Amino acid sequence: MENEMTSKINPARLWNDIIESGKIGATEKGGLCRLALSDEDRQVREWFVESCRAEGCEVRFDELGNLFSRRPGRQPDLHPIAIGSHLDSQPTGGKFDGILGVLAGLEVVRTLNEHGIETEHPVEIIDWTNEEGARFAPAMQGSGVFAGVLEKETILSCRDRDGRVFGEELQKIGFRGDDVCGHHHPLDSYFELHIEQGPILEAEEKVIGVVGGVQGMRWYDLTLEGRASHAGTTPMEMRSDASVAAAEIIIAVNRLAGEIGEGALTTTGVIDAYPNSRNVVPSRVFMTVDLRHTGIEILDRMEKKLEEAVSTVCSLREVSGTLDRLWDSPPVKFDAECVGAVREAAKKSGHPLREITSGAGHDAVYVSRVAPAAMIFIPCKDGISHNEIESATPDTWALAHRY
Ligand SMILES: [Zn+2]
């Protein structure tokens, strides 16, 4: 690479791209509604493809609609070094989540072109289809099929809430390609720049987050069965009250995180009581539990404590409890060499950096199963994301992009 002065990106140009992209599916509050495979998704893809072709890139898309824009390298036999993320958004999403990572790839290509820099490997910019999972669930479908974690046919036939089929909608927007999705498209390495979507970098006044990995998460459904009875005639000591058991379990789950320490996170996000009537002792409560940590052994310990808490409370309150684990996403450790490259570049920039673990899922999680991968975080205002007021500034991402 050339000296630092000539190989820096142009933050104003990248900012301009963010603004241009933000016009497609713009919401009143300055955010985005650009659901996967919607007409807005088509528009932003067409705009992006045009921008890439203007830089001399060859653009291809696979059968899942994942979009690959390639700038040739000196050695065409080498696998591409990829930079990417996603262009879709939540229904009330922000302009930066995902979009920054894709457009940063375009800015890197523009910078290389501008300075006539040749690379050994091809450089590829990737837009993964449906990262958000807002319209078609689950999330991270394009990268999930690419990595062989999700079934292609299952995804192509999944439906949105209006009954529309993924594969047909993809066809309709004109981005269903012929390329087989997955290992037919090897990557040398993959880098994803993303807003942190949390408050840590901003609070500690750090500019670059060197992301070592993504924490593991386990999701549980818990159903508590008690006995419905009259609120006015059933003495307290003769009740089998599912809500009281639920309340004690919520507290126990919250305490569990403190007992484990080391960054353990626990959440009880859903609680439904039946029959949900003010003068009936609840017979049943359905609730969910979300456990997160970077270590599998710690997650195992958390799960054990959760099981103990449920059984202790249930026997004390004379209700029965059924705990089902319905999702287990193991912790991800990104490739040491890729993370090292990010760390070195960040150090060289002289700006404050911090080692960080991602609390949220990203395309890089799946891609890391089939290619060496790493992520770079930049702060976002007040740690807010998945919200129209999501914000980041050119200063921060320019620092994160000194190649
Ligand atoms: Zn994202």
SSE blueprint and pairings:
Layout: H1 11-22, H2 39-54, E1 58-61, E2 67-71, E3 81-85, H3 99-114, E4 123-127, H4 141-146, H5 152-156, H6 166-172, E5 189-195, H7 200-203, E6 208-214, E7 216-225, E8 229-230, H8 242-260, E9 265-267, E10 271-274, E11 280-281, E12 284-293, H9 296-317, E13 320-329, E14 332-333, H10 336-349, E15 353-358, H11 363-367, E16 373-378, H12 394-400
Parallel strand pairs: 3-4, 3-5, 5-16, 6-15
Antiparallel strand pairs: 1-2, 2-4, 6-14, 6-16, 7-12, 7-13, 8-11, 9-12, 10-12
The structure holds zinc ion (ZN).
Characteristic key phrases:
five-stranded antiparallel sheet, alpha+beta, 22% strand, nine-stranded mixed sheet, 33% helix, elongated, binds zinc ion, 12 helices, 403 residues
Description:
The model is unreliable at 1-6 (pLDDT under 50). The chain is built from twelve helices and 16 strands. The chain has helices at 11-22, 39-54, 99-114, 141-146, 152-156, 166-172, 200-203, 242-260, 296-317, 336-349, 363-367, 394-400; strands at 58-61, 67-71, 81-85, 123-127, 189-195, 208-214, 216-225, 229-230, 265-267, 271-274, 280-281, 284-293, 320-329, 332-333, 353-358, 373-378. The structure holds zinc ion. Residues 86, 97-98, 131, 194, 362 line the site of zinc ion (ZN).
